[in-house]
């Protein structure tokens, strides 16, 4: 049995419940969208999913700290918004039989407490979780791709990751296969995917495409130009001989997509010299791609460093690709970036 079998099981159940909550919000057409201090959007789904997941972790692993994206400040100020989130948290737990495994949030006050347990600052600690309750909120709002992401980090290394993608097709080659999948991985044990709603032991192994000719590859990249430089990525594609159109989607669904062979390369190139990637945006996806046979580094070829707090401040950019072509992609990235800096 895996050394992290219990953590994986609990994390999958928590993410699945959170995915259900996001679906309830999406189907209701009432997202409760507000703006954070940095003007990025946040919805009732973000708050509810964070409460559900941290509540589950507190039930089973009460000593574990969590680095989460959200806090409850605005819910404490806006009672109507808090009540809406509480209604969702309660409703989400009625669709599953997970209570004996992960419990449920007991009250609206507990809900706020659980959300705020995501304020941990991270760093070099024995064990912690990284949580993005709704990664790709803009994608969620446009009913595109988004993801519920949870990772376990032990001694600064990601050892387990779960990514729930409610809008990703179960089988991209079969439109009638439905949508909604959960990806899971444990370090050294491979990567798996299963439909949302199936048993947690029903996951099937996934692998990145085996590809040596970069001209036959395809990109996954961010929808938002503010997240990654589309112009630079187009020049990189040209250097690699890539002619296939890029697949653009939000969130760590990009990591998930290339890990099962829907695409081959994911680049996230910084649009600002000062921007620092958040650990919750990459922890799960980083391990998933590695376990599916890929390599993830920053744009200088360095491994991602999850020991520096809430951000990847020792890294710049993201380059994810299969082992066979990663070095070629990295070389093209550096050539394009050096050319940009010299002009």
Describe the model:
There is one protein chain. This protein is an alpha+beta fold and 343 residues long. The chain has helices spanning 5-28, 44-60, 73-77, 79-92, 99-102, 108-116, 137-141, 230-240, 253-259, 283-291, 326-342; strands at residues 34-35, 41-42, 66-68, 127-135, 147-154, 157-169, 179-186, 191-195, 204-206, 219-221, 247-248, 265-268, 294-297, 318-322. The relative contact order is 0.13. The mean pLDDT is 93.
What attributes characterize this protein structure?
343 residues, alpha+beta, seven-stranded mixed sheet, 14 strands, globular
- In N-to-C order, the SSE pattern is HEEHEHHHHEHEEEEEEHEHEHEEH
Strand order of the largest sheet: 3-4-5-6-7-8-9
Number of helices: 11
Strand content: 15-25%
User: How many beta strands in the DSSP annotation?
Assistant: 14
**Which value, in Å, is the CA radius of gyration?**
19 Å
Q: How much helical structure, as a percent, in the residues?
A: 25-40%
Structural class given helices, strands, pairing? alpha+beta
Major pleated sheet: 7 strands, mixed
The span between the termini is 55 Å
- Catalogue the unreliable spans: none
Question: Which descriptor suits the 3D outline?
Answer: globular
